[in-house]
Design a protein that fits this description.
Blueprint (H helix, E strand, L loop, with lengths): L3 E3 L9 H6 L7 H10 L2 E5 L4 E3 L7 E7 L2 E6 L5 E7 L4 E2 L12 E4 L3 E7 H10 L1 H26 L3 H17 L8 E3 L4 H8 L3 H13 L3 E4 L2 E4 L2 H8 L13 H9 L1
Antiparallel strand pairs: 1-2, 2-9, 3-8, 4-7, 4-9, 5-6, 5-8, 10-12, 11-12
Helix pairs in contact: 3-4, 5-7, 5-8, 6-7
């Protein structure tokens, strides 16, 4: 993996990964220390660099601290389908590290900072602290839900509904890690990336953006999107804000709480 490597300093380790995990599970100081010590390196990666190449073996997990990436499939005819946009707090190597050979490629859409650990080391942590294995399963469940919505996007939503859903999803995911305001967001991707994710041409995408603006649902200043009518946009997209169900506490802990 290309990039500049430096060791992670203990006194400044935190970020969107911890913010995201805390939506699922309680993390004490000892948990965070174990997770921090797991990270072997911090990578600085330049825009347009490949992080994972389809067909190759990959045995790392990279947690996005800063920047954005795209998980994609390049077809024989040269066309690209982006299956997901990766944001701060997301995991690169998921699912690539869990299969013999990567089934998707991942490319940096911006300059990035990544915290890196070996998959084997993360699995060892899960044996020692089961809550991290549970957290990974919760992340997988939410990713599966997101991919299901993307199938509905391509298969059944109209282009303008598809675009509205994409904007709301990006906003919700960034807001969950403290990277977006209540009714506005800076789009992390270009129109070319959006078109490859949504299965439409760039001119068609521009027409759909113009329609959302013309209908008074959004305002757009460069890549800065303001949701002028959040309720109307959600109705158009059939969008349900994500529900962050927490991992249940162990039965023994629940019993102790009831006794107390």
């Amino acid at each position: 993996m290309p990039g500049t490597i430096r060791k992670i300093a203990a006194d400044r380790w935190d970020g969107p990964l911890v913010a995201r995990l805390r939506r699922y599970v309680e993390l004490g100081p000892a948990d965070i220390d174990d997770l921090r010590l797991l990270m072997e390196d911090e990578l600085n990666v330049k825009k347009r660099r490949d992080l994972i190449v389809e067909g190759y073996e990959y045995h790392k997990l990279c947690f996005i601290k800063e920047g954005f990436a795209a998980r994609y499939k390049l077809l024989r005819n040269g066309k690209r389908q982006i299956v997901s946009v990766l944001l701060p707090g997301d995991v690169i190597g998921f699912p690539g590290s869990f299969v013999n050979h990567s089934v998707f490629s991942v490319v940096a859409l911006s300059d990035m900072k990544l915290e890196v650990c070996a998959l084997d080391d993360f699995v060892a942590l899960c044996y020692r602290r089961a809550k991290f294995g549970l957290a990974l399963s919760w992340l997988a469940a939410h990713e599966a839900t997101m991919y299901a919505e993307h199938i509905i996007d391509i298969g059944r939503r109209t282009p303008v509904e598809r675009l509205a859903h994409f904007l709301l999803e990006i906003h919700a995911r960034l807001a969950a890690v403290g990277r977006a305001a209540e009714r506005e967001v800076d789009l992390p991707v270009s129109q070319e990336v959006m078109s490859d994710a949504l299965g439409m041409s760039v001119p068609h995408l521009n027409r759909m953006l113009a329609k959302l603006r013309g209908d008074g649902l959004i305002t757009l200043d460069g890549r800065h999107v303001t949701f002028a009518d959040m309720r109307g946009l959600r109705q158009l997209a059939h969008f349900q804000p994500p529900s962050f169900t927490r991992i249940p506490a162990p039965a023994a802990t629940i019993g102790q709480e009831l006794i107390a």
